[in-house]
UniProtKB/TrEMBL annotation:
Residues 1-26 form the Thiamine pyrophosphate enzyme N-terminal TPP-binding domain. InterPro entries: THDP-binding (IPR029061), Thiamin_PyroP_enz_TPP-bd_dom (IPR012001). Gene3D superfamilies: 3.40.50.970. This is Thiamine pyrophosphate enzyme N-terminal TPP-binding domain-containing protein. Transmembrane segments: none annotated. It comes from the Eukaryota. One of its GO terms (molecular function) is thiamine pyrophosphate binding. Pfam families: TPP_enzyme_N.
Length: 27
Protein backbone atom coordinates (compact mmCIF):
# COMPACT_ATOMS: atom_id res chain seq x y z
CA UNK A 1 0.00 0.00 0.00
CA UNK A 2 2.66 2.63 0.93
CA UNK A 3 4.43 1.97 -2.37
CA UNK A 4 1.23 2.85 -4.22
CA UNK A 5 0.95 6.13 -2.32
CA UNK A 6 4.53 7.04 -3.24
CA UNK A 7 3.77 6.17 -6.85
CA UNK A 8 0.73 8.47 -6.83
CA UNK A 9 2.71 11.39 -5.43
CA UNK A 10 5.61 10.71 -7.82
CA UNK A 11 5.24 9.71 -11.49
CA UNK A 12 1.53 10.30 -11.89
CA UNK A 13 -1.95 8.79 -11.85
CA UNK A 14 -1.46 6.59 -14.92
CA UNK A 15 1.63 4.97 -13.39
CA UNK A 16 -0.25 4.59 -10.11
CA UNK A 17 -3.07 2.70 -11.85
CA UNK A 18 -0.54 0.42 -13.54
CA UNK A 19 1.21 -0.19 -10.22
CA UNK A 20 -2.06 -1.08 -8.49
CA UNK A 21 -2.96 -3.49 -11.30
CA UNK A 22 0.45 -5.17 -11.06
CA UNK A 23 0.18 -5.37 -7.28
CA UNK A 24 -3.19 -7.13 -7.50
CA UNK A 25 -1.83 -9.61 -10.06
CA UNK A 26 1.28 -10.33 -7.97
CA UNK A 27 -0.70 -10.74 -4.76
Amino acid sequence: KPAVVLCVSGPGVLHAIGGMANAQVNC
